[in-house]
Amino acid sequence: MSSAPNAETVRQTLQEEFELLKADILATYSQTVGEPSANSAKTIAIQQLPNGIRMEADGYINGRGPGKPPPSAAIAQWLVQKGISARLEGEITTGALAFLIARKIGRMGWKPKHNLHDIVAGVATPQRIEAIIRKTGAHYVNGLSLEITKYLQSQLPA
User: Fold this and answer.
1) C-alpha atoms less than 13 angstroms from C-alpha of 146 in its C-beta half-sphere
2) Which of 86, 71, 65, 85 is nearest to 39 (CA)?
3) What DSSP character marks residue 110?
4) CA distances from 118 to 17, 18, 20, 69 (A)
5) Are the CB atoms for 119 and 32 separated by under 8 Å?
6) What are phi and psi of 54, to 5 degrees?
7) What's the whole-number mean pLDDT along residues 76-100?
8) Are the C-beta atoms of residues 9 and 96 closer than 8 Å to each other?
């Protein structure tokens, strides 16, 4: 009795379900925190493992502790993308503001107003995880039932 095709179906189902989770997490993030930057969306990745699927995100998505300041260029780009530099034009240069923000993050760290763990917990609820388990488990049960039925039919006298 081989369950290889069944395992592939389960992997595909898990991949689809995790992609849906990712989309819902980003949508909730967008509604709660604001539109995620292109980099934030790219940091959430779905990874296939030999024994399942894993979702992971960049370490800074939930903030960072004090230490080395982040690169000012990345903050300057973010200031431009968010339209902040345009609003402050004439008061301070984008580069100077980016440097000040990077220096403060380096000294004090940074925590987002809404932690992604809270957002993930709100989207990936126990009920939703249970539904995914039921959905993927159904593939195993159906495949096993089919294999048992075929085996029993092969054992019946003709």
Assistant:
1) 10
2) 71
3) B
4) 19, 17, 18, 26
5) yes
6) -135, 145
7) 91
8) no
Find, among 21, 16, 19, the residue nearest to 120 by Cα. Answer: 21
Q: Which residue has the tokens 């592939």?
A: 8
The model's pLDDT over 109-121, given as tens digits with 9 standing for 90+, comes to 987 776 666 777 7
Q: Which has the closest alpha carbon to 58: 34, 41, 72? A: 41
Domain segments of the chain as ranges: 1-63+112-158, 64-110
Task: Kindly provide the residue ranges of all beta strands, DSSP E only, lying in the chain, ordered along the sequence.
Answer: 45-49, 52-56
What number is the average pLDDT over the span 83-100? 91
Instruction: Give the residue carrying structure tokens 């991949």.
Output: 15
pTM for the full model?
0.55
Question: What is the predicted pLDDT for the residue at 3?
Answer: 45
- Angle between the N-to-C axes of helices 4-32 and 126-155, in degrees from 0 to 180, rounded to the nearest 10: 170
